[in-house]
Amino acid sequence: MTEPDRLRWRSFRHNVALFAGLACALTGCALIHHDTAPYTPIAPEKIRLADDIHLARDGWPSANWWTGYGDAQLDILIDRALADAPTMVIARMRVVRAKSDVELVKAGSNLQVVALGLIDRERVSSNGFLGPFALNDPALGFSGPWYTEGIVGLGASLDIDIWGKQRAQVAASLGVQNARLAEASAVELEISTDVAQIYFGIQTTYQLIDLLEQLRQIAAFATDAHEARVARGLESRTFVEDARAHQLAVQRQIINAGAQIQQFRESLRALLGASADNLPTIEPVPLPESRATLPSTLSYELLARRPDLQAMRSYVQASFDRIDAAKAAFYPSFDIKAFFGVDALHLADLFTHASQQFNLIPGVYLPIFDGGRLNANLGGARTESNLLIEQYDQAVLDAVRDVAKTGSRLQDLNTEAQLQTQKVQAVSFAHESAEALYRRGLADRLAAMDARKPVIAEQLALLEIDGQRLSQEIALVKALGGGYRADPPVELNPR
């Protein structure tokens, strides 16, 4: 190294040391003035059920819980909905977008290298810094005032993340991506439970129509029987009109039930995103037996089982990282910029050895007076975090409430179903007695059929209870997360 090079290198090191010392001395010029205390996440003891809420079977829903019903029609509908439902497609697109955002933030913290190629046709001002070049003196190498400057080379920059600002920003974007993934699972749960609710609503209505048809046949037989008696002068017309009114009322109920099935189908079509002629035929099948389960204790496990809670948890964690990034913005930032290439005022000299240029520019940037921008940014990040914590706490309490309400209602419906089954058996005894008398010739057919009406009425009541049990059972599956399982949650530590 020549002596001039040594002198330049010493001067460079001296300037860098002086610059760094000045930065450290001024670090305290931009101070954090207004940072409120973080809110507290929900306490674990609040995530529990009352001691009197339990079901006959303990446990969490399994993955693909709907396959436990053993209904191929239901399996096909849910699989199709999870693949093609518009809301499911939107949720997946949000996940892809979040992943792109993570890659974008990560890219900003890595080494940036660009290739430069520039041609600048300029007129040099005689009164400016380059005034001598405005002369037209070929003997001195000046051919002004017009020049065509060329630059070709590589430029690079690297931000040195000493205080973790960039790392915090990457962590925040990763938190949002995790939240989007959990939200996609929450949409899957929403779609699958909605399809199951609609499907079993259709099956319940099919059975309702079947029982109503039996009532209609009894009413039609009664009408014909009373008509025959009126024709023989054995009864007044009043009995005929009463029987016909009952028949018409049952027919109206059948029509309403058919309209209900059509409404269910249209709701299912919209959920699946199916066209008018692209919805499979749903054949009547018996309603499945109740298989609802409820864990004996909830505790923190509920947080890992509910995708919506996991999504909110990830948003809260991301807000903590944004606070860290907002705090790191108060400290000095360091970067290094470099350029290597060729630069000449005459294109003919561009690719000569004398035109080579190398720049190495370490830099430090220290906020001193910013008009309160950094404190406002930190205050906004803190407020958003506290808001998310409160929303998360409320969501956890709502989740526990949903499980408690649904589990309690299922217990009541199970008891009602047992009592109603006994009632059906009790009224069936009277019908069987009337049928026995008819077969022995001790009673007429009309009396035997009239004895069937109370049985059908009680069967209708039992069908309503069974439909409600299925609906509540699916609601409980949803409240318990539908088989979703994330990593066991750790306690949130606000910063």
List keywords for this structure.
single chain; membrane; efflux transmembrane transporter activity; Outer membrane efflux proteins (OEP); alpha+beta; Putative outer membrane efflux protein MdtP; two-stranded antiparallel ribbon; 10 helices; 11% strand; four-stranded antiparallel sheet; elongated; 495 residues
Q: Which helices and strands occur, and which strands form pairs?
A:
Elements (H helix, E strand, L loop, with lengths): L2 H23 L46 H13 L1 H23 L3 E12 L12 E2 L4 E2 L2 E15 L4 H67 L5 H36 L28 H5 L1 H22 L4 E12 L11 E10 L7 H67 L5 H6 L1 H28 L16
Antiparallel strand pairs: 1-4, 2-3, 4-5, 5-6
Helix pairs in contact: 2-4, 3-4, 4-5, 4-7, 4-10, 7-8, 8-10
Membrane topology: Lipid-anchor
GO molecular function: efflux transmembrane transporter activity
Subcellular location: Cell membrane; Membrane
Detail the poorly predicted runs. 16-20, 22-28
The main β sheet shows up as: 4 strands, antiparallel
**CATH T-level topology:** Outer membrane efflux proteins (OEP)
Number of structurally distinct domains: 1
CATH class wording: Mainly Alpha
Average pLDDT taken over every residue = 87
Taking Cα atoms only, what radius of gyration do you get, to the nearest Å?
39 Å
Helix content: 55-70%
What series of H and E elements makes up the topology? HHHEEEEHHHHEEHHH
Summed up, the helix count is 10
- End-to-end separation in angstroms reads 52 Å
Number of strands: 6
Helix vs. strand class:
alpha+beta
Strand content: 5-15%
Strand order of the largest sheet: 1-4-5-6
CATH architecture: Up-down Bundle
